UniProtKB/TrEMBL annotation:
Keyword Chaperone belongs to the record: yes
Annotated keywords: Chaperone
Protein name (Swiss-Prot/TrEMBL): GroES family chaperonin
Cited InterPro entries: Chaperonin_GroES, Chaperonin_GroES_sf, GroES-like_sf
Family label: Belongs to the GroES chaperonin family.
Pfam families the UniProt entry points to: Cpn10
Protein's organism: Lentzea rhizosphaerae
Length: 97
């Protein structure tokens, strides 16, 4: 990866989901625009806040898609990431920007 680019693989989602009230939402249900979680598989030399292996939150719409050895990845600028998951929960929500 070059410059400020990040290569992310979208985490596989479960088919069905449950709402907070316990209602089952089928995988085929149309949802509003949603942010997605993914795992970082490559970073450019100018990327400062994420590293390979981090779990990031981003908008999968309007991202560039690339297939490498049969696996699909998204390529985006670092500024397109919304949050990075942290395993340390002592700092609040476990997310940092």
């Amino acid at each position: 990866m070059l410059y400020d680019r990040v290569m992310v693989r979208i985490s596989p989602e479960d088919g069905e989901r449950r709402s907070s009230g316990g209602i089952v939402i089928p995988a085929t249900a149309q949802m509003a625009k949603r942010l997605a979680w993914g795992d970082v598989f490559g970073v450019g030399t100018s990327v400062r806040h994420v590293k390979v292996g981090d779990r990031v939150l981003f908008n999968p719409e309007d991202q560039l898609e690339v297939e490498v050895q049969g696996t699909t990845y998204l390529v985006m600028k670092e500024r397109d990431l919304h949050a990075v998951a942290s395993e340390l929960t002592e700092h609040g929500t476990g997310l940092y920007l």
